[in-house]
Amino acid sequence: MGRIYxxxxxxxxxxxxFLGAIICCRPMLKDARATVTSSIPTIARYFTTKGRYEExxxxxxxxxxxxxxxxxxxxxxGCREMHLSAIIRHGTRYPTSKNxxxxxxxxxxxxxxxxxxxxxxxxxxxxxxxxxxxEMDGRxxxxxxxxxxxxxxxxxxxFPSLVSREKLRGGKISFVTSSKHRCVxxxxxxxxxxxxxxxxxxxxxxTVNDTxxxxxxxxxxxxxxxxxxxxxxxxxxxxxxxxxxxxxxxxMADRLGLPYNLINADMAQAAFHFCAxxxxxxTVNSPWCRLFDEVDxxxxxxxxxxxQYWKRGYGHLINSQSSxxxxxxxxxRLDKAAEESKSGGPISEAVSIQxxxxxxxxxxxxxxxxxxDEVRLTAANFAAQGGRSFRTxxxxxxxANLVVALYDCDEGGELRVQALLNEEPLTFPGMxxxxxxxxxxxxxxxxxxSCVFEEVCRLPPQRK
Length: 464
What we know:
By secondary structure, this protein is an alpha/beta fold. The protein is 48% helix and 10% strand. The protein is built from 21 helices and seven strands. It has a seven-stranded mixed beta sheet. Helix 4 crosses helix 5 (119-126). The radius of gyration is 24 Å and the shape is globular.
């Protein structure tokens, strides 16, 4: 991009105009802020894996480059960054073809049969443009590109000696991605965020590694016992047919002026997706959001959390065990940096950026024992799970990220670890905020010894 030059007199006049606008037009600025706030659906915090990153970090709404340096308060001022590993979900994407098909069916149903008189119902019928096509099929959106470009800049501000121009040019920042287009394009966006920031034209290579970033497809036991096994998602299926979801469907039908039998769980989810995608992709508080009140949204959130819990989380042991390969990869990078630091030599890999999916992150977070509730999530205990830790709306928005940083803190050669989830401090179970690396490693030693991907993912021998 070419540089833009300003004359001093132009800057002065611009400054006068800006100050005048602040003094004279405070009510307008207040109204503008109110408009921004009102554009956020009241149910946005329940969008689970379809949620904006900004709902998890609302301070970014005012300044997308804002960095909360207080997240590193657990470290002493003398600590020096040695290595950074980041495992990141792709950015905001379009709906998959499967979801588009459901959304199209609901839209057609409303246009041709809905008799509701509310203004927002008429807006759906007469003004809403069905902009989603099956060809989009989960592709990265423009917002998703920005998600990763902005995240790259914030990480460079948070870890300036690691995510730096010198490290990039020196080949000390590595990039690994899933083969899915949304992940590859997120990786390219992250790299572009750095090269734009530093005004460099570096050709930085990346590696596609589905064995690492889509391990769930490479784990035969997971595929057989969870992905393909009837009944593995029984709790989610029961909740879908239960009284809470039935009530959501009935309220939705009443608002649209449709018979109850036309609104099933698929249609309720399609409407929820309309609301979530219109907001995530276009920052629009659409009329689709009016189909749900907060209680409805909590039910819809729980339905998806049941799916994630039983398919990727604590529901089945193999869910987390399938991430053993990524778990070992993380610790091998930390081990290597720790050894190089101990020997007094240079750190060969300063930063590792790995881009995958929500399905990449969640099994690893589960294997690490994070966000585990005492009581398992079931179809029968929705009312008792209002304060649960396992809540994907907070942990797995678009561009969700787990960052693990290694520090030398001048403690007799001891290294410390600081973990962040979505740029907020993360404490490992039963440990202090920034533990010694050897203590952290000892804590996970049983997994480091036993969690062998090839072994846990091997199908048991069939009985004759």
